[in-house]
Structures are given as C-alpha cells and as structure tokens.
Amino acid sequence: MKATHIKEGIYWVGAIDLSVRNFHGYLTQRGTTYNAYLIIDEKITLVDSVKDTHTDEMMSRISSIVDPAKIDVIICNHVEPDHSGAISAIVEKNPNVTIITCASGKKGLEQHYYGNWNYHIIKTGDTYSIGKRSFEFLLTPMVHWPDNMICYMPEEKILFSNDSFGQHYATSGRFDDEVSHDEALYEAKKYFANIVLPYSTQVIKELEAASKFEIELICTSHGVIWRKYIAEIIQEYNKWARNVTKKKVVIAYDTMWKSTEKMAYAIYEAFEQEGYEIALRNLQVNHESDVMTDVIDAEYICVGSPTLNSEMMTNVVGFLTYMRGLAPKGGRKAMAFGSYGWNGKSIPGVEQFLKDCNYDVKAVFTHQYRPTKEDLQQITVRTLKIIKQNN
Question: How high is the mean pLDDT of the chain?
Fold first, then answer.
C-alpha cells in the first residue's frame, strides 16, 4: 500500500473500506475511508489514524514514506474508534510519541485503550510547532462527540476538519475533483443528515470560528479531500446547519394492502400540482438513512402507516424513531396518514412522533379499509388547501 501525495512532505496514509455497509444504523452503500495524514517535518506527525481492523493498511502506507517508529507526534482530533483505533500500534513502536488532544480527548482515549501515554493537552487557540509547519487548534465539542476538535496548518492553508465535511465514500480518488461531483456532494449531505444534523447549532459556531482561516485544502476524516469545491461544501454546510428548506416534500410510508399507499399518492398529487420537489419513499424498500437525507432540506414531512396489531408498521416505527433522534429544528410542517381495519391506533402514533420531532402537524388523514376514488380526491383537495394556506 502506498501513501498519496497531498503537498510537499504531506501524505494521505489512511485506509479504504469497500465492504462496510452499516455505520451505527446508517446505510453506507458506497463504503467509507478512514483518513489519516502524515507530515514529514522536524517532528514527524500523524494526524488521526484508522479503524483497528485497517491498522496494517495504514502502517503499510506510512512505511512507504517513513518507518512508523520515527513518528514523533500524533494529533487525535476524535476518540471514536474509526479515528483512533490504530494509535496503539504507533505507540507500540514508539512509546515516547506525543499524543496531542484536548482534555476530554485524553479522558476518552484512556477509557478506550487504558494506555499510560504521553499526552500534550490543548485548548482552543493553542498552537504547536513541528518545525517549518505548525498547527492551530479549535475545539468543536459535540460535532459530534464531546472530544471533537479540528486543527489548521497556516503554512500550508490546510484544515484538518475531523468529521466536518466528511462522507462515507470509498473511492480510489482521494480528491473531490477526482470523483463524481454529484456523488461526493450527496454523500456529504447524507453524512450531515445522519451524523451531524442534531448538532447544527454547534456546527454554526464551528463554521463561524473557522471562517478566519484561509483554506486551500479540507482534509476530512472520511471520504474525499476538498480542494476544488471548498466554497461550495462550506456553503452547503451553512444551509444544512441553518435548516434552510426548499419547496420539497418527503412522503414516507409502509402499506399492507395498498390502501395507505394510495393515500400517499393522493397527497403526492396535491404537492405535484403545487410544483413541489417530491421524495416518495416506501419504507419497505428505502432505508431510513436515505430518507433522512431527503428530510434535511424538505419543507413538509408526511408519514403514513396502516395499523398492525394496534401498532404502527415496524418499518414506520423504525424510521420515526430514527428521525426523532436526528430531527432538524424549526420550520418543518408535517402530515400523518394511514388506512386501518378495526382500529386506527397507528395514525395517532405517527402524529405523536411527528410532534415529538417538533414538526407543525397540519393534517391527519385516516380511512377505514379501502379508500374510494372520491375519498382519495378529498385527501388531495384537503392537502392542496393546506399547502395554499401555508404558502
């Protein structure tokens, strides 16, 4: 395994995980990368590491440039094991290596790895010289763990951004202009929606604090390095973090005998007439993490379920529970709907979940057994009225 040259004396030495398909319930159809960066200077420095299962791959890439035992400094921006899992392997080769992290990072590393390591604790605004180059540190707690931080190398204008701007995206291209632009942006959006979204307030603070940096490269912890589309990805992060929505609706549902599905299409028809972008998602075949990617910039979220044993369908419960943990703040409007047989307890359950997400529930549509064409037309008419009243 060879390192990838980034700038003179700076290399990507991470790992590519082509087979991973699930990350904490988040479907990673395109795999992921675990990014680590090697800087050759007076103090040879490693920024982050990789998941322990890919330690050998990282060590092989480092060895193509330098003996890993010669690493003097490791910067740990995040304790989560897909970032820190291979630090122990470096410490084994050089027990005197300096681990740079924040106070909560030190605590987390000790609780994960139990090592009596040589720590150098930093806080926001601190700097650390490695020779010709230096790092400035910015603590970003809860983006998305308490220990999170980022660091900036002013001499090279590189932001080592940790989880921010990342993507679960395994590709042979290391840079944003070496891969599909649409894929990279989509995976960045999906990453934000499924990992970073609950911490949008903290992201806004991070973006404001980091705006003083002149950036030529954003070296992420997952996915591609941004060098061509830096302004675009920062602009997108600002929109996502500030809950900017567009004329868009997400209609997510499960169905047993197609009655709830027909209701979904009746709602669809109303939004289509009003010129909305529509994401119609049957939860039997669409994963909740993909639906969350649709939710992030949607004005309306409509969720439907038939009743099964006095409960919602399990796919709907799973999605609603997942969304409740990630729910974007402010401005979202919602509708609950569903068909039922001898009791309709699922639909109030959907409504309550949507309220728990702090969405403004504008309508609840229920129908016993199969809706007629006239019933469906009434749903469309009522939905149209609600849309017009709220524009």
Answer: 95
The catalytic residue among 11, 191, 229, 237 is 191
The domain defined by 4-241 carries CATH number 3.60.15.10: yes
**Token pair for 209:** 């604090």
| Whether domain 246-389 has CATH 3.40.50.360 | yes
Q: Transcribe 39-107 into DSSP letters.
A: E-SSS-EEE----GGGHHHHHHHHHTTS-GGG--EEE-S--SHHHHTTHHHHHHH-TT-EEEE-HHHHH
Active site residue 163: yes
- 281 by Cβ neighbours in 10 Å (0-12 / 13-18 / 19+) ranks as buried
The domains of the chain are located at 4-241, 246-389
2 Cβ neighbours under 8 A, 6+ residues apart:
61, 64
Which candidate in 54, 78, 168, 287 is catalytic?
Answer: 78
Active-site annotation holds for 311: no
83 among known catalytic residues: no
**Active site (annotated) includes residue 80:** yes
The 10s digit of each residue's pLDDT in 126-158 is 999 999 999 999 999 988 889 999 999 999 999
As a whole number of Å, the end-to-end CA separation of the chain is 56
> Which amino acid, one-letter code, is at 169?
Y
Establish whether 222 is a catalytic residue: yes
∠334-339-342 over CA atoms, to 5°?
A: 130
Q: What is the pTM of this model?
A: 0.94
Which of the residues 52, 82, 156, 269 is marked catalytic? 82
Catalytic one of 222, 269, 322, 351: 222
Asked if 24 is an active-site residue, the reply is: yes
